[in-house]
Specification:
Blueprint lengths: L2 H15 L4 E4 L9 H13 L3 E6 L6 H9 L4 E5 L12 H15 L5 E8 L7 H10 L4 E8 L17 H12 L16 E9 L2 E4 L4 H11 L9 H13 L5 H14 L1 H6 L5 E8 L9 H5 L4 E4 L2 E4 H6 L1 H6 L2 E5 L2 E5 L6 E2 L4 H4 L12 H10 L9
Helix pairs in contact: 1-2, 5-6
Bound molecules: iron/sulfur cluster.
Length: about 375
């Protein structure tokens, strides 16, 4: 997609949501774009006071690139690693922990919050505790672990989710890996059927639930609403928190009680870690199947895709992905209106664009999504679960 169109969409996001909006710079994989363009995208988002996160499989996200992006305003990097990707040489999630460790080292010390995304499917469901255990050991760098439940949508070829994979069963597996029962109901983020979130404190690789006092947690969250938080610096996060709580006398005593209780709970770990504490959060994202979209969930979506015609719920977008992606885009250039054809990458004048947009002329490897799946299925190249 031409940089000009991406800039237009970044500006559109700013007009819709304003400063401090989190923007996932994703793809495909954004690291496949020319480096100077990716840097320019991150810089433009940061320049507008929004928060760019690089979403990548990490293959081309070298330390050098992360360094340059961090210097240009990147706030977070989210590495997506799991067994659905069938990376050569890795036969299990346990094996993939070596790769996760490698990526952690690439991002260490750059001032970035490091996230990991994992698609949960039948092939790795049993290994969730092991993955969580790994993040617990690396909570000095890893700040968020997001588990995304496989859904029958988009370009994925896994299709229907196994019945045993639910928000509840994944939450239980995460708790098993965390070694404590985590409260996934506070705070509520978007629709409860879509998202679950839990936050912990970590000291000496031991986790402690941050939301084990629901009443107090809700009061703090209410107080913090609208307070700008700079996640890139723990000191600034703590200062923002203290500043917000200090402004409400009713929270002074409950806060003191909470801090003393946590300190007592964590005393042995704090002693072993010499007082070093990290925050680690877990997120469960329950994407919807394309054929079973629920109106209330789509209307309260917190993951919107910036399409050419405005923000659209990611589930809706995924359900209509081919239509969205393959549509030629009108782009106003210095020479007048042109149409960018996503299939060929060519810019065409209005009268030329219709004849360029013909999928039949493209080789199979250029076709994505359902078109590709249909073609592969017709050749008997996919498993029986593909439609
Ligand atoms: S993308 Fe939006 S609608 Fe879909 S599961 Fe996530 S929050 Fe819900």
């Amino acid at each position: 997609m031409p940089l000009r169109e991406i800039f237009r969409r970044i500006d559109m996001i700013y007009r819709h949501y304003g400063p401090r909006t989190d923007i996932q710079v994703s793809g495909g994989d954004p690291t496949l774009r020319k480096r100077h363009e990716l840097v320019a995208i991150v810089r433009r988002i940061a320049h507008l006071g929004m928060r760019p996160t690089l979403f990548t499989n990490g293959i081309k996200a070298t330390r050098d690139l992360l360094c340059e992006l961090a210097a240009n305003g990147l706030v977070d990097v989210a590495f997506h690693i799991d067994m659905t990707q069938q990376r050569r040489g890795y036969g299990s999630e346990r094996d993939l922990n070596a790769l996760r460790g490698e990526y952690i080292e690439r991002a260490r010390g750059l001032g970035l919050s490091v996230f990991f995304n994992t698609t949960v499917f039948a092939g790795n469901f049993a290994e969730i505790p092991l993955i969580v255990g790994f993040f617990r050991q690396h909570a000095d760098v890893v700040k968020l672990a997001s588990f995304q439940l496989q859904a029958e949508t988009g370009r994925g070829i896994l299709r229907r989710r196994a019945d045993r994979i639910t928000q509840e069963s994944v939450a239980a597996r995460i708790s098993a890996g965390a070694g404590i029962r985590l409260n996934f109901d506070i705070p509520r983020i978007g629709h409860p059927s879509c998202n679950r979130y839990a936050a912990c404190l970590e000291a000496n690789a031991t986790l402690y639930d941050l939301c084990d006092d629901p009443k107090y947690s809700r009061a703090v969250i209410g107080r913090m609403a609208g307070t700008p938080i700079d996640r890139a610096s723990t000191g600034r996060v703590v200062r923002a928190l203290v500043g917000a709580l200090a402004g409400d006398r009713r929270l002074w005593l409950p806060t003191l009680r909470f801090v003393l209780r946590k300190a007592w709970q964590m005393r042995f770990s704090l002693f072993a870690s010499r007082g070093r504490v990290n925050k680690l959060s877990f997120f469960i994202h329950n994407f919807q199947d394309a054929e079973r979209l629920r109106h209330d969930r789509c209307m309260s979506c917190i993951f919107m895709v910036a399409t050419s015609h405005g923000p659209v719920s990611m589930c809706v977008y995924n359900a209509k992905r081919d239509k969205e992606i393959l549509r030629p885009l009108a782009i106003d250039t210095a020479d007048g209106r042109r149409y960018w054809d996503p299939l060929s990458g060519a810019m065409a004048r209005p009268h030329e664009q219709a004849e360029n947009n013909d999928t039949a002329k493209l080789p199979l490897k250029r076709l994505k999504g359902r078109t590709r799946r249909r073609a592969l299925t017709a050749r008997g190249l996919t498993g029986s679960d593909a439609r």
